[in-house]
Amino acid sequence: MPLDPQVAALLEARAKVLPRTGTVPAVEMRALHKALLARALPGPAIHDVRDAAFAGPAGAVPVRVYRPAPQVDALIVYFHGGGWTVGSLDGWDAALRRLALRSRCAIVSVDYRLAPEHRFPAAHDDALAAVRWAGAHIVELAGAPVPLVVAGDSAGANLSTAVARIVSDEGGPAIAAQVLLYPSTDGNVDSAFMHRFVPPSLAREEIAWYFDQYAPDHAQRTDPRFAPLHAGDLAGLPPAFVGTVDNDLLREEGELYAQRLEASGVPVVARCYRGTVHGFFTADRGLAPHSDAAMADIADFIAQVLGSAAARVPSG
């Protein structure tokens, strides 16, 4: 589908201020993204936002906790995208404020370790520790013993579902739902999926660069912690929302993962967002209509899952 004109204009504007991914070191890319944040629109005011940290496997892991109201419906542990290489609490702040308000959920945004300084499985290990920590502190974080949800976009969606599988196998903490926006699931830059077309954003060479930063050892790229599509058994995972993008090379592997979840008995809601590009969820200009649609879909999905779960709880 052709790009929305606003999306095309935004991509053109970004190309003038950001170098192509892979042409500068990761640390320089992070600095450029940070500079652009100064020009971004601020997120909406909400009831409470605070920074904290928890003890991770290699030291303190910073988090930002959002409470849209004194009473919330669930606690979302959110992992940002950025190819396990870029991304930050500030970079996702505006979007997560909007999501908290729309979903009526508290959110813990996790600043996991980034590559190439911290390679696979560092981000995964921090994500797993974050879910275990959040599960043990739900009342403190959300104000009540509400259900726990994992969510993320791109690399963050990859972390979310990989962690959901592990804690499911371990028997807890219980996760009510998983929200996966344009997830990386296959870990193979030479797959047929990666050669279908040349996308307007996030080309195959850029994906390969991100993979090289986080998992340069190709032998690790079939590890289910990096490539969830290679997990032997997906049965018993929580209900999943899988959002993909028509102009994204990750679309087919995301859809295939949704199909595998469904075949394993996992309830799945799948949405494909058209006319936009990978990374649209956090955009504050140009992509906002697409982002708004995704936030509404996610809020509806979480409400549906929580309603279904409540309906299964015996009364009395």
Shape: globular
Can you tell me the number of structural domains? 1
- What is the chains' assembly state? single chain
Q: Mind telling me the CATH class? A: Alpha Beta
The largest beta-sheet arranges its strands as: 1-2-4-3-5-6-7-8
Strand content: 15-25%
In N-to-C order, the SSE pattern is HHEEEHEHHEHEHEHEH
- Structural class category: alpha/beta
Counting DSSP E segments of at least 2 residues, the number of strands comes to: 8
> How would a crystallographer describe the biggest sheet?
8 strands, mixed
The rounded distance between the terminal residues' Cα atoms is 52 Å
Helix content: 25-40%
- Predict the CATH topology: Rossmann fold
Which CATH architecture is right? Answer: 3-Layer(aba) Sandwich
Estimate the mean pLDDT confidence: 94
Q: Which blocks of ≥5 consecutive residues have pLDDT under 50?
A: none
Question: How would you explain this protein's 3D organization?
Answer:
- By secondary structure, the chain is of the alpha/beta class.
- The protein has a single domain, classed as Alpha/Beta hydrolase fold, catalytic domain (Rossmann fold, 3-Layer(aba) Sandwich), CATH 3.40.50.1820.
- The chain has nine helices and eight strands.
- Strands 1-2-4-3-5-6-7-8 form an eight-stranded mixed beta sheet, with helices on both faces.
- Helix 8 (251-263) links the parallel strand 7 (240-245) and strand 8 (268-273).
- Helix 3 (93-103) packs across helix 9 and helix 4 packs across helix 6 (155-170).
- The N and C termini lie far apart (52 Å).
- The model has no long low-confidence stretch (mean pLDDT 94).
